[in-house]
């Protein structure tokens, strides 16, 4: 195909995709049927992980729950059974340990089957200034928030690719799109997780595996205890998010194959402005929004798996 034809194709398809996006503002896409899918959620013992498990419960899926906290994941299993799930399996798994991820993944494949919806939700935060954070906690942050995604993808993506069917979900953070004072290691780990998820998504498209969908979730602070004490200067613009609301939006995004989900919606504007405004103006806006002081009163649960 020559230059003129390729350029014409890009112009025509650009118009079409923009019109499609505009129509979807008023006519949302239909939810896909996930009955019979095997859904694995890491960090399912509490917080958003538990809420997502509960919201998947009535959808006819088989649930596989992972967490480092045995009592927490056991309780989640009990709760989803109360909501009607008959096929639920829970496993103790430290997602920061590659060998353990592979071992438990093999156990899941033997006992349950091939996972078709993988939700990488487990995460930790140190909540300390860069120079105050122990090396061990910085390493643990990357092991859980970033590297665990590599190992779970390695374990479960081959079957999805072979069937050209599945869904990869990365619960990242708005802190993976814009730096936050006091969250250097957390931001870096989430930036990496987003870059990894985007790159794998492109690999799948390049190899014709368009049946394997991807969703990247970037919420602002969620009121789960992980970021207790964090404040927001303008709650109407950047509210501390309700966990139930976030879980609902994530399930909705998965069911409609939404590629990116930013919460709250003002994050779309903030990220867009970050990419076009002068650096000094961006810093001024960050100060106005209170971004330099989000973590001043942090008292969240360090090393808490979300």
TrEMBL record:
InterPro entries for the chain: NAD(P)-bd_dom_sf, Sc_DH/Rdtase_CS, SDR_fam
One Gene Ontology cellular component annotation held by this UniProt entry: lipid droplet
GO molecular function list: oxidoreductase activity, acting on the CH-OH group of donors, NAD or NADP as acceptor
Superkingdom: Eukaryota
Keywords for the protein's UniProt record, in alphabetical order: Membrane, NAD, Oxidoreductase, Transmembrane, Transmembrane helix
Transmembrane segments: 276-295
Pfam families listed in its UniProt record: adh_short (PF00106)
Alphabetical list of PANTHER family matching this protein: EPIDERMAL RETINAL DEHYDROGENASE 2-RELATED (PTHR24322:SF747), PKSB (PTHR24322)
Family as reported in the entry's similarity comment: Belongs to the short-chain dehydrogenases/reductases (SDR) family.
Protein name, entry field: Short chain dehydrogenase/reductase family 16C, member 5a
Annotated organism of origin: Salmo trutta
Gene name tied to this protein: SDR16C5
